[in-house]
Amino acid sequence: MAALLRSSRCLAGKCHNHVYAAQVCIRSMASKTHVGFIGLGNMGNPMAKNLMKHGYPVIASDVFPESCKELQELGAQILDSPADVADKADRIITMLPSSPNVIDVYTGPNGILKKVKKGSLLIDSSTIDPAVSKEMAAAAEKLGAVFMDAPVSGGVGAAASGKLTFMVGGPEEEFNAAKELLTCMGANVVYCGHVGTGQAAKICNNMLLAIGMIGTAETMNLGIRLGLDPKLLATILNMSSGRCWSSDTYNPVPGVMEGVPSANNYQGGFGTTLMAKDLGLAQNTATNTKTPVPLGSLAHQIYRMMCARGYASKDFSSVFQFLREEEGQ
């Protein structure tokens, strides 16, 4: 039965300059076999729900059992470990907080690679070091599985509405197989190149996002101090050249927009700790490539400072609140 669930492969010519013939993945676009999902946090939970809405039976696991309850009530099968998921599903998506989590979920004692089936497609949507993605891909390849990195942009709102952007790195001949699943959760699925390039694109995006959010928070704070109504200022910015995602979609000032973390005491959304982590990844890759990123480095310092001053669990747009408190000292 497992053989029937696994996708067929056909012979292809030389792939990525290998001297041997490789088997190229051709998975049925109509296939609605089980999909594994590991990591049911703020992002993973709505992503898994969208897979189910599109008719895919989900087999899930999370280190925190309480995170699984909602999905279980919707009909998902919940298992104890990533290895158990790999034993039951040959297509698995992971959505985890950091590089160490990914390493443990894939290569740990109860990791995916302990029971992965030959021919399995493993898609990691975590934001991690590109070097770790390459390590996981190499480990998976030794066992006959395919690993692709597919980090996301768009936040919790886009995860819930199925409008995420996926940045995908891995073998190009496997992209359509990955896209079949990713389009259930996202509006944009972009192939970036070899394994690790998806992570590279995500790290660059989040560095710009952090810089833009700090700039928006500083601008809004200055305008308020100068006597401008924050809603009026936001309206002007958003019809002018200063417009950006942080000003028109995710404004950091309470009362300016509904349905964003700033309207809910900065709860939910994309945590300050995670932004600091992503900026650390950007800093590391910038150092390794000898790339000057002065604003990225300053943004990293600001978000690390915020983590040390009680903002770790708040949304990253709370940098506005942080700046307001700083001016009062």
Describe this structure in words.
The chain contains 14 helices and eleven strands. The chain is globular and about 65 Å long. Strand 7, helix 6 and strand 8 (146-149) form a beta-alpha-beta unit. The N and C termini lie far apart (67 Å). The chain folds into two domains: 35-194, NAD(P)-binding Rossmann-like Domain (Rossmann fold, 3-Layer(aba) Sandwich); 201-324, Orthogonal Bundle (N-(1-d-carboxylethyl)-l-norvaline Dehydrogenase, domain 2). The chain has helices at 2-5, 44-53, 69-73, 82-88, 99-107, 130-142, 155-161, 175-182, 197-225, 230-237, 245-248, 272-288, 294-311, 319-327; strands at residues 9-14, 21-25, 35-38, 58-61, 77-78, 91-94, 121-124, 146-149, 152-153, 164-169, 186-193. Helix 9 packs across helix 12 (272-288), helix 9 (197-225) crosses helix 13 (294-311) and helix 12 (272-288) packs antiparallel against helix 13 (294-311). Residues 1-30 have low confidence and may be disordered. The longest helix has 29 residues, at 197-225. It has 329 residues and is α/β, with parallel strands linked by helices.
